[in-house]
Amino acid sequence: IIEMASGSAALSVVAVAMAAALLALCGSTEAHTQFGAYNKTCPQAEDIVFKEMTAVVAKSPGLAGSLLRLFSVDCFVGGCEGSILLDSTTNNTAEKDSPLNKGLRGYDVIDSIKAKLEAACPGVVSCADVLALAARDSVRITKGPYIPVPTGREDGNRSSAADVTPNTPKPDASITGLITFFGKFNLTAKDLAVLSGAHTIGKAHCSAFSTRLYNFTASNNISDPTLDANYTATLRGQCAAGDLATLVDLDPNSGTTFDLGYYRGVAASMGLLSTDGALLLNEDTRAYVTCQANATAPAEFFADFAASFINMSKIGVLSHHKGQIRRHCSAVNPLSASSQAPVTMGAHAAVLLASSFVSIVALALVL
Length: 367
Prior knowledge:
Oligomer: single chain
Radius of gyration: 24 Å
Region (Disordered): 146-168
Helix content: 40-55%
Number of helices: 13
CATH topology of the largest domain: Peroxidase, domain 1
Binding site for Ca(2+) 1: 74, 77, 79, 83, 95
Number of strands: 2
Number of domains: 2
EC number: 1.11.1.7
Strand order of the largest sheet: 1-2
Strand content: under 5%
Binding site for Ca(2+) 2: 200, 251, 259
Structural class: mainly alpha
CATH class of the largest domain: Mainly Alpha
Subcellular location: Secreted
């Protein structure tokens, strides 16, 4: 009995050690990013993105909000790995062609910036990072905060329109549904209120909110009573019934400047989207909206937005050769011996193996 106990103890020690090693391996395969990932391999990368974005926003101010939205859509559907940028193929309908994404803009901007980066540093900067940096610079250029975004993302090689609906909040989502959705990505109710502040720049198609203006209660010509009446009248003047194409500022106060105008609008019942107005229906999100609406300076919002943006930018990141560096953002790289990533143990496989050894530990302890 003593010998068996001794043997069991030894087995336990070995099993624990092996399980610990495998769990450590799991940790080592976790995706990560770092500040200044291209400092040595492409030191001019972030300057190139900023220069190009400055020119883009100067010519088309509305694209700042569009690129910010494009990045958030990418992150919430499959992670921040550039899948939203991939084109559909003969055998696959990509995310960008989902009906829910047909209003997205800015793909050509990312392609143009990527071309400049490829000319300077071929095969170095991922499309996922181009999109992250372009979104970051959209905020900075429109007088928002500078956000020290970590880089080093790799690009995914899969994009499916079928993934969009399950990973996109419904246009009429309740505040409870929105908080639950954000919670799936370890984002809080505060993150929801803060990131909604991105609507201080950019535009939305009439189709995104027309139900708030016409036939809201299935009765002819009845509008959403939670919208300010004068604002409703203004919106009806911009969006006739059935108009799906016209673009309207998300922030009626200052739609091209990253400031507190959005929160002041929402607090005054002038949140354009149903999800904007929903922020007033939860104690925590309403408190944040009210605080920022009454603030005399944007310092707190700017600091909060930078933190929440960075949190979002880490969702589902690929690294450690789990992805690739696309040469063209709209298509995966062609397969070739030189383009194949080194074979590594994926985190999922490592977790399964580690679980097996944890089972051995449990068995050894029983023995």
